[in-house]
Design the sequence.
């Protein structure tokens, strides 16, 4: 094809075909990349503060501990970040964290240990747990996409229903007598690090690659940015969002699995109250509640920031009665800082 | 003009209905290879429906679409359609949070396997160079201006290999020089053999870039002609048709020295309008006319406080309400009928009585209480005044027909006996009878001494105005006294006669 800046003879003056816009230079893309790293200075600052407050902070044991404590939260944030980027919501993740392992355990342990009495083979425990996570995500997707209900209210309802189901069939009891397989994941160390850190790292690596370098991952951004435009470009928007919800449920179940293994039991309130922290980490990490914006790496940084703050508060000897109020307050301040530094209204 | 044997695009006797309304009635269009073909018509003429049928987004109820003589692909075959026709829609399909490169290759960033961002940017740069678009492929699309985004859409549309492109009101959001550059580009594309269908409300533009023109009116095809064989006034006549017998405007004289009740001084708002002055005296009705992009709605919404102007002042009844604050504007003595009654006009689940008395609730009882008896009495009077067809004041407005719901909105606007009245498209979607009542109510208010601004897309409505102010691309271009002719006004609205000024 020939150059298109041919001036037609019919136009006096023949203005140039290409508008004389100033080229901003190729730095645009690199600046966009820098936004991902916005929280890295904050993380470094927190590490310095931690080291000043308590020398033991920098010990390998403590840092490993910080990471391990955050694995369960970080898997939820991974799930929520993907769902938020797709322009939807999922509040029910925290209940999946409790229900999925509770069912996985309850179906395989004997009735004497508060099981359901089905006594299925113990090897089925973990697959059942993960499958339940996927099914919950699929059901959320069904209500939101097929029945066109608001994701907010659907998953708020599911949050309550799932928690209620767990309390209902466990009679509000904690489940002990876990199968070996559950305990293994929470306690094993692979190459010197807890297994849960590896699992989490691998999950993030896959997520970052998929959302950064693969067509289907990119379509999540397109859907969250402008669903009509995505559809016009041939993206099967409903299917993609549905799969994202199922992956979200899967990750929440996995998170519950790790928590169960670490604590050695399934508490009736397992996961209760995590969702605020999940949203806070995602938003601090630069994920937009409006969809289409944010990266998984940023979300991971958000988790680390919150984890370090939590750890520093504990090391600084803040009393247990006050820690919740202070932690919540710091999250709100972090949200305000994120709002001010990004210079845009938080959406 | 040479007529090739098979036209590039043809829609044959297409009919499309949406429920009770017929959007296209046995209409068609024939576009020859390589020409730029204009499609014009007033709002609701069926242009958008034809676009969605020609782009395969909707299936016609009757009739067929042919590309180069061959039947169009089935509606499910999106890729098939994309190879035939590309469309730059009115609504942007650029995703602001993604880069330019990714927007260009959305959902085809790579074949299989991971995306190579470097090569994607390279491919994007090639595509942008090919169409002479000077935009950095790595930038976020949200940082581009309207013109650049549009160029992006054109480049993307053509990259699918289609040789026929529909431009749906591409000039509506552009300013003068950008429009000129767009036309330059369209001429260049035509020189390369691209066939185009161009939609615009500005007839002058049709004469600048198109070779032939098709006029739709009331869902029907009216005429197709070579542009150079169709003078301006005949084109306008084809668009407007003969004026239907409508409301008989009353004669009225505005008292000399009547006080100014509503005025705008040097009002500007972004790209919507600039430096507008407007003065409305008591007892006067001033019409505000212009096309969709003229800024007339934005101006009216600024007068009532729905929007805040960037510069300039609004004065209501001698007071200067807080800009962008509806409550203080209403307190100053203004009543208004908003553009979209469903959005801003009424609360559908509340009764007629509650809706109509919302602004005067504080006068219907003491200490914040509202007396149901007083409210009912007021509402009954309003129902009688405006002949609202209803089972009673307690019926929810959501149950009323469009015309009656609009009467409730008008009743609300008039509830506090306003000194200034702003009425936006009061007769859209209402029948002839309701129209007469609504226009009569505006004239009644003027006779009681209110000054009114009437914004309307309907020329007939504007007949009740003492003068009509015409806006074009955000500026007041002309003021026409009572007694104008349709063609005269439309010509000014469409920007045809701006050269004569």
Sequence:
């Amino acid at each position: 094809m020939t150059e298109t800046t041919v001036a037609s003879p019919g136009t006096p003056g023949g203005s140039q075909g290409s508008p004389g816009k100033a080229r901003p230079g190729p730095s645009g893309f690199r600046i966009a990349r820098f936004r991902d790293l916005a929280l890295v200075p904050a993380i470094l600052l927190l590490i310095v503060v931690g080291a000043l407050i308590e020398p033991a902070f920098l010990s390998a044991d403590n840092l490993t501990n910080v990471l391990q404590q955050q694995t369960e939260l970080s898997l939820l944030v991974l799930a929520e970040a993907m769902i938020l980027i797709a322009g939807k919501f999922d509040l029910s993740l925290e209940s999946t964290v409790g229900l999925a392992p509770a069912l996985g355990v309850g179906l395989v342990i004997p009735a004497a240990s508060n099981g359901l009495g089905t006594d299925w083979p113990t090897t089925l425990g973990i697959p059942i747990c993960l499958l339940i996570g996927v099914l919950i995500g699929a059901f959320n997707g069904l209500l939101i996409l097929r029945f066109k209900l608001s994701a907010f209210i659907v998953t708020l309802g599911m949050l309550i229903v799932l928690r209620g189901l767990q309390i209902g069939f466990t009679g509000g009891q904690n489940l002990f007598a876990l199968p070996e397989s559950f305990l293994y994941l929470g306690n094993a160390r692979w190459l010197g690090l807890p297994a849960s850190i590896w699992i989490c790292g691998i999950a993030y690596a896959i997520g970052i690659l998929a959302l950064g370098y693969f067509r289907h991952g990119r379509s999540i951004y397109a859907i969250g940015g402008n669903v009509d435009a995505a559809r016009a470009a041939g993206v099967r928007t409903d299917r993609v969002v549905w799969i994202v919800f199922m992956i979200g449920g899967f990750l929440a179940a996995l998170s519950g699995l790790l928590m169960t293994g670490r604590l050695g039991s399934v508490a009736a309130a397992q996961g209760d109250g995590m969702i605020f922290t999940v949203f806070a980490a995602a938003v601090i990490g630069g994920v937009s509640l409006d969809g289409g914006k944010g990266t998984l790496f940023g979300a991971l940084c958000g988790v680390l920031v919150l984890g370090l703050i939590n750890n520093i508060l504990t090391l600084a000897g803040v009393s247990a009665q006050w820690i919740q109020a202070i932690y919540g307050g710091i999250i709100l301040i972090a949200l305000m800082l994120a709002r001010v530094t990004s210079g845009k209204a938080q959406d | 003009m040479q007529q090739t044997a098979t036209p590039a695009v043809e829609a044959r006797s297409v009919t499309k209905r949406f429920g009770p309304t017929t959007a296209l009635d046995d209409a068609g269009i024939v576009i020859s290879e390589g020409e730029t073909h204009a499609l014009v018509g007033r709002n609701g003429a069926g242009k958008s429906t034809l676009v969605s049928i020609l782009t395969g987004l909707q299936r016609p109820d009757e009739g067929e679409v042919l590309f180069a003589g061959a039947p169009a692909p089935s509606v499910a075959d999106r890729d098939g359609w994309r190879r035939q026709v590309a469309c730059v829609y009115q609504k942007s399909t650029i995703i602001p949070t993604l880069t330019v490169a990714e927007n260009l290759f959305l959902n085809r960033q790579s074949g299989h396997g991971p995306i190579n961002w470097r090569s994607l940017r390279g491919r994007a740069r090639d595509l942008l160079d090919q169409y002479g678009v000077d935009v950095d492929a790595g930038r976020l699309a949200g940082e581009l201006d309207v013109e650049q985004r549009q160029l992006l859409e054109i480049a993307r549309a053509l990259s699918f290999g289609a040789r026929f492109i529909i431009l749906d009101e591409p000039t509506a959001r552009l300013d003068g020089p950008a429009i000129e550059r767009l036309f330059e580009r369209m001429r260049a594309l035509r020189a390369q053999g691209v066939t185009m269908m161009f939609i615009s409300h500005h007839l002058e533009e049709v004469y600048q870039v198109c070779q032939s023109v098709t006029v739709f009116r009331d869902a029907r095809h009216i005429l197709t002609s070579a542009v150079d064989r169709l003078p301006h006034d005949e084109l306008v006549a084809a668009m407007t048709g003969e004026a239907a017998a409508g409301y008989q405007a009353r004669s009225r004289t505005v008292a000399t020295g009547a006080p100014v009740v509503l005025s705008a001084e040097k009002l500007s708002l972004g790209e919507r309008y600039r430096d507008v002055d407007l003065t409305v005296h008591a007892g006067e009705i001033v019409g505000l006319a212009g096309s969709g992009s003229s800024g007339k709605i934005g101006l009216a919404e600024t007068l009532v406080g729905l929007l805040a102007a960037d510069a300039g002042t609004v004065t209501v009844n001698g007071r200067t309400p807080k800009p962008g604050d509806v409550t203080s504007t209403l307190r100053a003595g203004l009543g208004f009928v908003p553009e979209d009654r469903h959005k801003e006009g009424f609360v559908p689940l509340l009764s007629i009585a509650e809706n109509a008395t919302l602004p005067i609730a504080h006068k219907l009882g003491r200490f914040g209480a509202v007396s149901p008896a007083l409210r009912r009495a007021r509402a009954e009077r309003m129902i009688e005044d405006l002949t609202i067809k209803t089972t009673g004041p307690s019926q929810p407005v959501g149950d009323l027909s469009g015309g009656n719901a609009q009467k409730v909105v008008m009743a609300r606007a008039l509830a506090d006996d306003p000194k200034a009245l702003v009425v936006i498209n009061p007769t859209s979607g209402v029948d002839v009878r309701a129209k007469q009542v609504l226009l009569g109510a505006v004239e009644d208010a003027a006779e009681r001494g209110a000054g009114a601004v009437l914004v309307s897309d309907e020329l007939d409505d504007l007949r009740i105005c003492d003068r009509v102010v015409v806006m074009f691309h955000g500026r007041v271009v002309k003021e026409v006294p009572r007694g104008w002719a349709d063609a005269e006004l439309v010509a000014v609205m469409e920007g045809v006669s701006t050269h004569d000024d």
